[in-house]
Amino acid sequence: MADAEIIAVGSELLTPSKVDTNSLFLTHELNALGVEVVRKSIVGDDRARLTGAIRDAMRDTRIVILTGGLGPTEDDVTRDAVSAATGRALVFSQEICDVIAERFRRFNRPMAEINKRQAYLIEGAEALPNPRGTAPGQWVVSDGCSILLLPGPPGELKPMFTNECAPRLRERLPKLVIRTRWLRVAGMGESDLDALIAPVYTRYTNPVTTILAAVGDVHVHLRARSDREDEAESLLDEVESQIAELLGDRIYSRGGASLEQVIGDLLMDRGATLSVAESCTGGLVAMRVTSIPGSSRYFRGGFLTYTDEMKTSLLGIPPGLIAEHTAVSEPVAVAMADAAAKLTNSTYAISVTGYAGPGGKAPGLVYLGIAGGGKADVRRLQFSADRERVRALAAQMALDLLRRKLLAP
Amino acid sequence: MADAEIIAVGSELLTPSKVDTNSLFLTHELNALGVEVVRKSIVGDDRARLTGAIRDAMRDTRIVILTGGLGPTEDDVTRDAVSAATGRALVFSQEICDVIAERFRRFNRPMAEINKRQAYLIEGAEALPNPRGTAPGQWVVSDGCSILLLPGPPGELKPMFTNECAPRLRERLPKLVIRTRWLRVAGMGESDLDALIAPVYTRYTNPVTTILAAVGDVHVHLRARSDREDEAESLLDEVESQIAELLGDRIYSRGGASLEQVIGDLLMDRGATLSVAESCTGGLVAMRVTSIPGSSRYFRGGFLTYTDEMKTSLLGIPPGLIAEHTAVSEPVAVAMADAAAKLTNSTYAISVTGYAGPGGKAPGLVYLGIAGGGKADVRRLQFSADRERVRALAAQMALDLLRRKLLAP
Asked: Going from the N-terminus, what domains does chain A have, and what CATH number goes with each?
């Protein structure tokens, strides 16, 4: 598999508010060609540093793509840096200069003297036409390494890559197909999950398995390479099936769908409806459920009962029940879920009651209830995490508990 | 001015859909310390390539910050790569191992054998405590270069940088006083705001003014440098006072407090309480209000009425009112807010009713109501944005409307 490094050039990309998005487009296109991006760099408008970065990249990869720094001003240093890194001279091209001059004429603007800087080609480079801008791209092969100089504006870079670079790369590269799969898992820590499935995936170098963790949510990503589509798919099948067997019903989606999307689909399939009664999560469960377009077809509504008094006045929880067990207890979680289902006339209802912390009686203690389909389910959880994480974990586990109830025979 | 390079480690950051955001935070913090970021790199979970990238960075800069790759699994290669690049051994630390084991005990979870990998320190490194996660950070000085190993999850990285790294860097760097101010503004677009205040801030190079925009929220950041504290403060006073005059009551906080924090403080000051009745935002307003620790002192609860039927059965909105005006209308927004305040016996109530889209009758049309202190306020808004942004903008504007009501004489 061929490797590439992308170097984005521009001091503005080193400020706290700018991200380089060209490399996302390029990565997508390169992967489709069977090229893996092994490093991305961002370097300012600094001739010496950029020269060093290009040399580093030429040492490690066979394809180096530079974006930006092809403008006409002093701080556009990409041409100079490639010249220095490869030891090749910059050669003035009258042909390119004429194309640039023609472009200015078309726009009825005078061509400034500095624009001639854009007519210099690295010795031996091929110019890549840029119908959308002034600076042509360049393609130069040095020491067996293909170096691509592309303009920074996405509107110029994208068509140039698609029309000029991709066909050239396709010709030079061995045919390679890349296929991916996602398994998403709720309610398991990253290291527990890894301990469980590592014995499988470490036996394979193709597909490559990556584990990504968010709060209460772990994603297993499989990526297979082959020169044939069916082989890539069957490599994935082989590993995915073994991992799936180990993880069982902890996998909530295989195509990449979010937990709230999966729940929405399950509710729709069953013609069922949902409501909530949230205390410590303060609306987070409902917010996630309603983030899905079309959720009004199954989500009816709910109650935010942040105080004991509200649990009584909105949901009718008997004050005696709260006095006997406290508001954060199994009986109150069950009563909240049952009341929400009944008051909204929903098939299912989720309740959450807990102490998000910090401080208080038992920070991190949460009870979840799921009403519907007979007796309510209830679960006690104890998290050791800050307020934000306790709330996020409680909402995640509540949604997963509902998923399991919906899937139960 | 000192130079730094940031290396983000993780194969997932080399996929077409992921951007490295940690480096934006770090750049911001480093700039505030007078450190310039001269290169950012992203390298996959590849020991050899990462070792090469660290060596490149050590050649060019005096501060190298690595983020990610400190997890317990085989593909977490940062410790190994720094060890290889510096020629220093990895040394097992029983002390760190005990801290990790204690953390697992607190969560009532068994510590997996692989977690011991996280207890290895580069020879001569200082461990940086990580109260939010398992892996400690590390600080090692090699060949005059300070190398920082920080965890990848932003929730762990940010406090570690702020509490452990920034003070150490400040000690080592030439004394330079940097003072900052934040003005946070709701309900104004970034470009409108810039057009308004640019005539002021472009006249000054010190302080430097930066405008950062989130959804419905714009932050104006002023940063002054001097070798004297009082001079830095008076430079800030001069520019801040002019900007503040132009923005007036659109500024909701000056110290950096979030809108929900400001509202919480205002409600507490007035001994007032709050409830909500949310339709299209599905709990987002309440979720933000209750994200503040101690919000149970002023937030009572509320209603999620996602369907017309729920607006009637939970809030008692007359079906005739909905039939006459539709659920997304001024009279219904007012009735929802009034009903929420009354049913929860709160001083104030926020209502939101709208079409989040996509599709439907009038995607992006939202009515907000604020009950309390006499006649309800109501506002009609029309957003042109996707579902997620419409919901976020509606919640933001609802909170700002409440803030204005709380401040009204």
From this structure: 2-172 (3.40.980.10), 177-253 (3.30.70.2860), 259-407 (3.90.950.20)
Token pair for residue A13?
């990309």
Query: Residues B52-102: pLDDT tens digits?
Result: 999 999 998 999 999 999 988 888 999 999 999 999 999 999 999 999 998
Minimum Cα–Cα distance from B358: chain A residue: A293
CA distance B8 to chain A (A): 10
Residue A353 Cα, gap to closest chain B Cα (Å): 13
Nearest CA in chain B to A23: B16
Nearest to B72 among A59, A191, A304 (CB): A191
Question: B16 and chain A: CB distance < 8 Å anywhere?
Answer: yes
The DSSP secondary-structure symbol of B116 reads G
Q: Chain A, 288-317: which have a CB under 8 Å from a chain B CB?
A: 289-291, 293, 295-296, 299-307, 309-310, 313-314
Q: Is B73 on the interface with A (CB under 8 A)?
A: yes
DSSP A312-332: HHHH---HHHHHHH-SSSHHH
| Nearest residue of A to residue B22, measured between CA atoms | A16
Radius of gyration of chain B (CA): 26
CA distance A101 to A98: 5
Query: Distance between alpha carbon B136 and the CA centroid of its chain, in Å?
Result: 23
For residue A19, give the nearest of B19, B43, B73 by CB distance. Answer: B19
Q: Which helix (H) or strand (E) holds A158?
A: helix A154-160
Tens of pLDDT, residue by residue over A43-64, are 998 999 999 999 999 998 999 9
Cut 0.90: pTM above it: no
Q: Considering CB atoms only, which of A52, A304, A389 is closest to B301?
A: A304
User: Angle CA(A24)–CA(A27)–CA(A29) in degrees, nearest 5?
Assistant: 110
Q: Contact B45/B81 with Cβ under 8 angstroms?
A: no
pLDDT tens string for chain B (409 positions)?
689 999 999 998 998 878 899 999 999 999 888 888 999 999 999 999 999 999 999 998 999 999 999 988 888 999 999 999 999 999 999 999 999 998 888 888 888 888 888 999 999 999 999 988 888 999 999 999 999 999 999 999 999 999 999 999 988 887 777 788 889 999 887 778 888 998 999 899 888 887 777 788 988 988 888 888 899 999 999 999 999 999 999 999 998 899 999 999 999 999 999 999 999 999 999 999 999 999 999 999 999 999 999 999 999 999 999 999 999 999 999 999 999 999 999 999 999 999 998 887 889 999 999 999 888 999 999 998 889 889 999 999 999 999 999 998 7
Give the C-alpha separation, B48 to B45, whole Å: 9
In chain B, the residue whose alpha carbon lies closest to the alpha carbon of A19 is B19
Whats the size of chain B, residue-wise? Answer: 409
Task: List CB contacts (< 8 A) between A211 and chain B.
Answer: 73, 75
